[in-house]
Amino acid sequence: MPMKTCTVCYKKSADEEFHDCEKCKLYCCRKCFLLHVGSCKFLNDTKCNICNVHQKQVEKYCLNCCELTCCDCVTGNHESHTTLHLWEAVVNIREQLPNALAEFTEKEVFYLQNLHKCRDIQNGYKLIIRNIQRDETKGTTVVSDIRRDFIRPFNAKIEMIEINCIKKIENTCELIKETKIKFVNLTKCLKDASFPMKYLCIWSDAIQLKGACEKKITGISIIEKIIEGFEIDKNKDLEMVLKNGKL
After folding, report:
1. What's the rounded Cα separation, in Å, for the pair 7 and 75?
2. Could you tell me which residue ranges the B box-type domain spans (predicted)?
3. Which among 58, 66, 125, 228 counts the fewest CB atoms within 10 Å?
4. How many CA atoms lie within 13 A of 201 on its CB side?
């Protein structure tokens, strides 16, 4: 009786024990077929069990590219890359997940701190403006001059902080949060992982989002310097207003 090697678990089984899923076209041994049933809709929707390039069933996972590959890919575009059997790749993911989750938890805390710092600077300027406006009720010409000379530039700085810092950091924080959630969900899924293709596909999506997030984070380092500049300016502006005795 001819024997075949299952591309999911790599165990040899008799030809008659292999099954072909009518819905997602996955072809594997009976044991993997039964495990696959719960993931069938996911595989059918994402088509992650079929290679996009060669239209063949995937057999391995490339660690360099973080993508599922078929046998033709392994000897082609991924020839010099590190490729693992599907279950081996799942084990590799389990080892990487804690570090990935810790990394994004740390980043989330760091950028939320930057966001709070920006808002504190904004609120500092708003407080200065409120105090100036309070004194304006005295109706003095000097206070009118202060309104013209100080309030308008201060409002401009409040808007600049909003556009150049807060909005960008908020977007980055949202992306960090979304990436972190993916890794959290992946951690939960892998506790009872029974079918490799589904989890490897989810991991690939998480890694792609991680890459997009890191690009955003690279740009934030420039924003940090801008925040420092605004903080220095705010202290100077406050000192200048206090020096004129108007607060």
Report:
1. 16
2. 46-86
3. 228
4. 17
pLDDT in tens, 70-108: 988 888 888 888 999 999 999 888 888 888 888 888 888
- For residue 104, give the nearest of 219, 216, 223 by alpha carbon: 216
DSSP-assigned states of every residue in 17-73: GEEE-TTT--EEEHHHHHHHGGGHHHHHHH-TTB-TTT--B--EEETTTTEEE-HHH
Q: What is the DSSP letter of 10?
A: -
Q: Which amino acid would we find at residue 4?
A: K
Whole-model pTM: value is 0.72
pLDDT at 189: 76
For 183, other C-beta atoms within 10 Å of its C-beta total 25
**Inter-CA distances, 62 with 30, 65, 148, 203, 221, Å:** 26, 6, 63, 12, 31
The DSSP annotation for 74-91 comes to HTTTTTTS-EEEHHHHHH
List C-alpha distances in Å: 169 to 11, 54, 110, 180, 183: 50, 41, 11, 16, 21
Q: In Å, how far are 173, 211, 221, 227 from 224, measured between CA atoms?
A: 14, 20, 5, 5
Residue 62: per-residue pLDDT: 93
